[in-house]
Structure formats: structure tokens, C-alpha cells
Amino acid sequence: MPELPEVETIARTLRPQLVGRTILEANVRWARTLAMPSVKKFREQIKGQKVGEVSRRGKFLIIKLASIREPQAEPYNLLIHLRMSGDLAVKKGKIKPEKHDRLILNLSAGSASGRPKWSRVKSSLVFNDTRKFGRVWLTRDMDEVTGRLGPEPLAPDFTARWLYKALRQRHRQLKPLLLDQTFLAGLGNIYADETLHTAKLHPLTLSDSVSKKEAEHLHAAIRATLQEAIRRNGASFDWVYRGGEFQNHFRVYGQEGKPCPVCGTIIQKLIVGQRGTHICPSCQRE
């Protein structure tokens, strides 16, 4: 599943291809891809919406829209969660749908006046999802979808002090807690393993036993790991997300049986919270 660095990379890639384009029509090829609203309302509401911004919140891609037909109307937000196998791409012209294309948005060519050229489709935003787990929301109130998410790990309000206090207020194992999107938005299995190894913390450590110094190390490790992964365009894996190179720099994730890059001890794989988890038993003592 694409995590924060991959979704951030996708947002940065799509931004110059989408901003300023107007959505001419929507081809919904699998109704359950839409979490909200209904297919009929989605087609009606998204037509004539101009893309103003492409960003991210946790693992959600966010496309902010503004109506061409009703400039004074409250703007919509198009939110996309790729889940296990979702993929987004902008393709030239009006395309012929492929087998696993679930949603296609036809986009205008735009013009110097800012008005779309309604007669011509310049490109198509295609949501392809083999396993059908990905979801799309169109809403004016983004909190309906993202309101329960925890803080952004790269935002100014995510501080070592906040993390220490939040850890001490809970009695949970570290790895499952870091994967809880209501605690911290954006971390998944890959970056939780990488972060915990960098911070030299065992994934089964109870959160309320973490010292202030350990919380500071964990905070620094989260930021450093995510920033480096973004710099390398995330990690390429499976057939879903391609183009990143952070997988070539994994410390422990997927490295079972290989030597730890810090001490040389053989990396082990555990099951924590029903998730495959990779650790160095020497650097990360339980």
C-alpha cells in the first residue's frame, strides 16, 4: 500500500498535470469505487469543476476544486485513497478504458482566458485499481473523511514534546500505535519498521514505557525516514507503485536474513499486530 512518501510523490507528479484543468465528465466504471456521493450525483457535481490545488493528508490524495459554472459556490474536495493496489495516472486525450480502470475523469485543454475548451478533451485522469479496495470521495466538508486523522508527521505541530505526551497517554505496543492513522497520519508497515530501527526501539515496546529521550529519538527518526523517502520518490513495490528508489536503502523492511547495516546482526521477521515486522534483535532489544 502506498504510504506517505509515495502519496506525496504522486501529488507532486500530478500537480503540474492537473492544476488549471477543468473536469468535463466522469466515467465511473465501478460504482463502489465512490465512497460518496452516489454515481449520479458524482457525475453531476464534478462536471465543470476546475482543479485549483493537488495535495495530500496522511495517505489521502486531495484535489481541491472550484466550480466554473457557479464561481460563488462552496468548493468541492476530491479525495482519493489508493489502498492496496490503486494507481493514478494522467493520460493524453480521451482514452479507451482498460480492464481495471475504475474511474476516468476527462479534462479540458484550458485556455488563456482561464475558461475550458469544452469541445476538446486534453487528457484523462485515470484511477486504476486491480483489487478494488481504493476509494474516492467528493465532498465540500473534508473533515467528513479526514477529520479523525492524527497529526502530519512532517508538520510543525508534530513535535517531540507532543509525541512523548501522546505515547505516555496510551498503553499500546509501539508498532500498532504508529500504524494507527488516528494517532499519526501517513505511516504504514514499511516506514514504521524503518523508523523503529533508526530509533533503536523494539516494535513490542509499550508506548507508556518510552522515556523522553527515546521519544525524541523516535520523533527524529520518523521525520528523517520520511524526508529521505520523499527525496527518493518513495519506494517501488509490487506492480502498484513504481518510480521510487527508497527500496534500495531499506534498513530492515524486507531484509530478513540479511545483516543489519548498523551492527551486522541478522535481521529477523516477527508478526506484530498481524503485520509482518522486521527488526535487528541487537539494535532493537525488547
Q: Count of DSSP E strands?
A: 11
Q: Which structural class do the helices and strands define?
A: alpha+beta
Secondary structure tally, helices: 7
Low-confidence stretches: none
Radius of gyration over C-alpha positions, nearest whole angstrom:
21 Å
Detailed description of the structure:
The chain is of the alpha+beta class. The chain folds into two domains: 143 residues, MutM-like, N-terminal (N-terminal domain of MutM-like DNA repair proteins, Alpha-Beta Barrel), CATH 3.20.190.10; 120 residues, Orthogonal Bundle (Helicase, Ruva Protein, domain 3). It is built from seven helices and eleven strands. The chain has a five-stranded mixed β-sheet. A four-stranded antiparallel β-sheet has the order 1-7-8-6. Strand 3 and strand 4 form a beta hairpin. Helix 6 crosses helix 7. The chain is elongated, with a radius of gyration of 21 Å. The model has no long low-confidence stretch (mean pLDDT 94).
Q: Secondary-structure map with pairings?
A:
Elements lengths: L3 H15 L4 E6 L5 E3 L2 H8 L2 E9 L2 E8 L9 E5 L4 E7 L8 E8 L12 E9 L5 E5 L3 H4 L13 H9 L5 H6 L9 H11 L12 H20 L36 E5 L2 E5 L7
Parallel strand pairs: 2-9
Antiparallel strand pairs: 1-7, 3-4, 4-5, 5-9, 6-8, 7-8, 10-11
Helix pairs in contact: 1-7, 4-7, 6-7
